[in-house]
Queue: 2 jobs
Job 1
Amino acid sequence: MLLSLMIFIPLLGMIVVLLLPRESEELVKRVTLLFTLIPLALAVYLFITYDRSTAGTQFFHGPVPWIDAFNIQYHIGVDGLSVTLLLLTALLGPICVIASWRNIEKGIKAYMALFLLLETGMLGFFAALDLFLFYVFFELTLLPMYFLIGIWGGPRREYAAIKFFLYTLFGSVLMLVAMIAVYLNSNIVNGVAEGLRTFDIPTLITLAATQGHALADSDFQIWVFLGFFIGFAVKVPIFPFHTWLPDAHVEAPTAISVILAGILLKMGTYGLVRVNMAMFPQGLDHFTNGIGFWGNSLALLGFINIVYGSFCALAQTDFKKLVAYSSIGHMGFVILGLAARNDPGITGAILQMFNHGVISAMLFLLVGVLYDRAHHREINGFGGLGTRMPIYTGITTLAFMASLGLPGLSGFVGEALSLLGAYDKFKFLTILSTIGIVVGAAYFLWTLQRVFLGTLNPKYEALSEINGREILTLVPLAILTVLLGVWPNLAIDMFRESVTNLINVLHAI
Amino acid sequence: MQPLSNIDSLLHFSPEILLVIFATAVIILDLIVKNRESVAVAHLALVGCLCTLAAVLFIHFSFGKGEPVSLFLGMIQLDVFSTFFKVLLLLATAATILFSLRSEELDAKLKGEYYALLLVITLGMFLMASATNLLMIFIALETVSLTSYILAGFLTHNPRSSEAAFKYITYGAVASGTMLFGLSLLFGMAGTGDLTQIGGRLAELLASGEVSSLTLLIAITFVLAGIGYKIASVPFHMWSPDVYEGAPIPITAFLSVASKSAGFALFIRFFYTGFGSTGLMEAVDWPFMLAIVSALTMTVGNLAALPQQNVKRLLAYSSIAHGGYLLMGGVLLTSEGIGAILFYLVVYLFMNLGAFYVVVLVANEMGSETINGYRGLSSRAPLVAVAMMTFLFSLTGIPPFAGFFGKWILFTAVLEQGYYWLALVGLLNSVVSLYYYARIVKAMFLEDTSEETDRVSFSTGTFALLSVFVIPTVFIGFLNIFYTFSNISVSVIPMQ
């Protein structure tokens, strides 16, 4: 019940915001902030009271029958992985509202309403335990995102918005086919249909591990794995489905870039863990067993993401595009870690999901701060800002260092664990992937040098220092970055049991 | 099941009789009322729809609760299936009358004929949904066709409308002629026009070798021309973009929803009742033919819609594409497939009529039917823009709108029968369709108007009517009762 409350409070907030008069902009903002702070409070409560010693789902609501004809149920609940990502989502909610406080000039009411709808979609997605519900929440994020990029975005917003929409929908329909195929086979044991079909994720995971069940057939698993994989790969994004991301990130307003990088990309990797890995271990095995081309394919994609993303980032002169491509690189570590299928690999991947959510959110907020003042993002157009904006420079340096994987900050732990796990299975690819880390250090340090060091561009003599509101959005994220850098077990303890459980499933085949 | 005699049938036939009475009354009232601006005629037609609806429901609930009854010595059949379509068609007709009341392009002088013809076309569609005899099928189809020619050309001052009517009649005549030839071949072979017997006869003749499967193939293909023309399936779809663009908007809306629904009713009954037996399908694999037609129809419709600038024309192509999706359900030979078609038709009724209603409103207020005319609608009429957005995304099939649930049960039915290629074609087509639907959304929400930004105000009645379409488009998918339509198909699919 608590969880349902958390998911639907932003939706209630959307209705409230829509009923407010158009003129009272301050009120709209405050109400929105309130309706994003309540889920945050609930998420913190979940985080604290979550029983870390078991892998089972907790705080569940349902199953409540919804569409009887297809045995679709309303069923939600959290395990260690989802509770971590719910916390991240709930945390970025109010941060994004504060970050949008002054930057959104037109239609603030519609903006906030769509933002709240988006938050419901994201929270619901991470908590859904019914595959159909999962899909509906997954798609529910599309509409608000399309409008948020398309209406409040930059000059090429229309192109970016429809590209994002089309790519994601393309992935979703393949996922839909796979989902229907899973549903239709969910009651077939040894070729005979018995009982009701189901969408219930925990039930499906059990069935897929049952000898003789249609879902446990390895050919079937490979095909549905592919269907779901493409759906999630577009979202992550995994090469070659990544081209929507730089466009969407660059055109989206700051707060929406934060959500895109912080949460939407995690929806892809979360889906890979929740559905592809847990439900189709044999399908996963086919793509990660290290034999031949297909056996290395997932790790190969991770490697391409890391190296290709990093090199693309190195070539950018637009600050925001650089951060966008660096996201592609960092999501590669998640894929590589998941492909390893062992304890350090999966733990590292999940940790990296959370950490990347925090760090990339910081980076996009920082880019936004600079853009609001200078009205451009050309890296070569700045120089010597360190003297004008010392606090800003300090926070940016922290975020850069965290992102490039400096030990002691959170980015390091996740990437190191992912590589550690992957080295066990894919030695050659892992060694090559470290190129990405070197290039990552190169582009971040080079950017630091071009923007903050050197002589001050006289145009920016009057640039004002980062203000209190902006610091307020960055401080919680900075604290988390340092905290998880020195005490990663704070997060790892949350999902340790879930990972152990997942590995047992993976090894049972 | 013993067919009722002509006299006994009359009571069961009362909805159709009521339609005829009201059509006549509309014409007489039009002669009496001198005031050209009066809306009395339209209201009488509306009352006619409601009375007919009441009669349909009364007959359904008072006589055998939908047990099939054969009327007029086997000419038409009254069952749940036809009742379902009658209700659907009456809703579409009532909506069309309401649109026409608000549309400013119709000629006030001709409104008596206009509303009378609407009622007559509904009568024809009733017959299409219930005909079980080859002759009756042809008469029903012609009743609908001839009236639609007149209605398509109703804007006498507009050359495009006349062109639409002319094209419609030319294609229509060819299609009817071809179909009639096919029907006569069937009658000639089987010696009976009764759909319930024709399948058995033909199977016997095929088994004894008196009829070759080639002749049967030709006959069925020819009949398909007539039905394909009504549901605008490839390659008989060419008329629809021109007609949809030229006809008055309410008529376009009516044709795209009602004509298509009636076409599907006829299609399902003709093929399932007449040619659903295994023996016949071995000789002529019509489900496979239709699967190909379905894939082509949706692909051609969607690809042709991509570059359109005129919203009516765009919706015409989109309606062709939706015919393709619906056809998928028809090739499955399962009650789930039929149930999915029926569910989708209900959803399609609301979302497509809603979209056309917005087209009427925009044409009235902005005087434009092109996508550019929709620019900045979100700031000028936010509620209308949001409603249009709902309809368009529902047509695309994006959750949480009803269109998604419609596609969902359609594709589930398709995949259940193992037609993976067809489902993939359909789903990829949905992705393509997003592009052109989103172009309208983009114009409404994403593009700023350069010129005027005055708010456009609409009456409460307009919003009330709009919400009649918006609310089902949002909520149908969440209600359990709409998922039981597969039971309706029982009377159509013969027991194997």
Job 2
Amino acid sequence: MKAAVVVFPASNCDRDAAVALEQITGTKPQMIWHADSEVPDVDLIVLPGGFSYGDYLRCGAMAGQSNIMRAVKEKAEQGVHVLGICNGFQVLTETHMLPGVLMRNAALKFVCKPVGLTVTETQSVFTRHYKAGQRAEFPVAHGEGNYVADDETLNRLEGEGRVVFKYAPGENPNGSVRDIAGILNDKRNVLGLMPHPERVCDPLLGGTDGRAMFESLLEALA
Amino acid sequence: MKARVFVTLKNGVLDPQGKAIGHALNNLGFGAVGEVRQGKLIEVELAESDEAKARSDLKAMCEKLLANTVIEKYEIEIKA
């Protein structure tokens, strides 16, 4: 499986993503700079966590206008898989590659802690190695992860099995509507989520619940 | 010409920051303060003399970048 990780100014989880990808897939991902206008020929593009462009205007808004995102959008339309983690999820909503918005956390505080998730959808190339309804624990680290969308969009997301991760009951850290933590686009090749699977891929880092996502991708895209 | 763009949350969108500001004002003794909504003011200088053209350009700027129209609305004010 060939992967690329986009690096924006002030991305800070790009190397975590690269390490996880290399450990699990055995192949070093290519790092692509935000000012580039071409994405190499890969199976997976990762938009990493961080504070791209200092979160100016709105989180992900400036990154959404970058050269590389135009290319990423084209690739996604051609069916290349895209995984947006944390700030990457914010970039995906800002470019309308995923519906809804990530607003300021309901309690107005930056939250940085492990959070329990329920894997609500396993019919996806991102989650096929999880069991439906399984609990997984990923860390979150964000100030703007409060997912908001209108009822019609939410009903469609849930009806089409596009809500892939929910915060476990009572563990919603940011006020996200219907406890939504991660969603797919309608073609199911773009996933955005606030929690960080790449940070729980090695027992040394306190957990391995994130590995199944990269193993799913490896199996599906190898 | 100069323009001012006001970007605010749409009615009905929860604004926890506005709420926190409201509470702080109440705590400062401004008991008459009710609901507070927070937004952004963006000042733009434009090398354009045709007001209609400026207005339509600013509208496009808002739709493309300045506002996220899923949750935000905008108002444009043009000063000569």
